[in-house]
Write the structure tokens for this entry.
Amino acid sequence: MPWSNQGGGPWGSGGSKGPWGSGPQSSGPTPPDLEELLRRSQDKLRSVLPGGNLGGRGFALLLLGAIFLWGVSGFFRVEPDELGVVLRFGKYVREVQPGLNYHLPYPVESALTPKALRVNKIDIGMRNVEDLRRGTVTRDVPEESLMLTGDENIVDVDFSVLWKVKPNGVGDYLFNIQNPEVTVKAVAESAMREVIGRSEAQPILTGGRQQIEAAVQELMQKILDSYGAGVQVQQVQLQKVDPPTQVIESFRDVQAARADQERAQNEAQTYANRVLPEAEGRAARIRQDADAYKGQTVAEAKGQTARYLQIYEQYKIAPDVTRRRMYLETMERLLGGTDKIIIDQGVQAGPGSNVLPILPLNEMTRRPGAPQ
């Protein structure tokens, strides 16, 4: 690039003067003289050293002091919510736990202390803003919270993500991702939009929140592991899931109608649960009565058949006796419950007669169990 003739070269006017020349001075502050600073430092050092001059012993003491200070500079402290990461010439070497630790002094080793044991929280779709009159208020962020569902409805989703650094993953956390909070937030919003896009609006607004939280957490962890981020997703919490503000009243009417429908269905199911067992019980009782009557009738029929067969066997042996016995038993069964007393007219009362002249008819006609 050609220089300007008026400038006199790259260091201003007066081309004969180089960058260290004594050209015109600017109006700014004058830089300190290096030789004067070295001379003053030597004078102070001579005043401290014994003998007033810097001999071999003084140089040895100075060297030992410098080595001591250099060695002590390797101590560092790790806070309770931090993990120490030791780097050797910029390369990851090891992790150290909270407390007082040591690494080789700089420039051999150095230490980083990220807050790897703390559980971090990221809010998506909302922001907490400090208000002087109302305290902390939540402000909605529509560009993050409005999402499209699988049935082409729009829902307003506010959620929070709790995350921390994985155990033994602090090296990946430090070196594989540049900005962990921005990465986790972007992954969380992307995962939530994907899960909402596969779901219908009704389960999202009612009882499907736990399934959505679990699906988003699983998808987030899968994506972060593919990045090698060294981040563990602790929990996904849905804070608010509502329809857009413009149509929220209509959605509430639909929800109320669905609640009425579910209540009517529950009442009908309750009635069915009460009536059906009663009907089944009555049907079972009728079947049991029928089975009992059947068994009784069959048993009686079998008994009568067996009795008839027995009588028939006796009849074949002695027909006249059996016939007369059957006649007498039949008459006894027919006349046994009547109040009549029949006396044969041809039987005369007298000695050797089977009929007494005077019969206690009242005693004979009194029914069993009747009062005296």
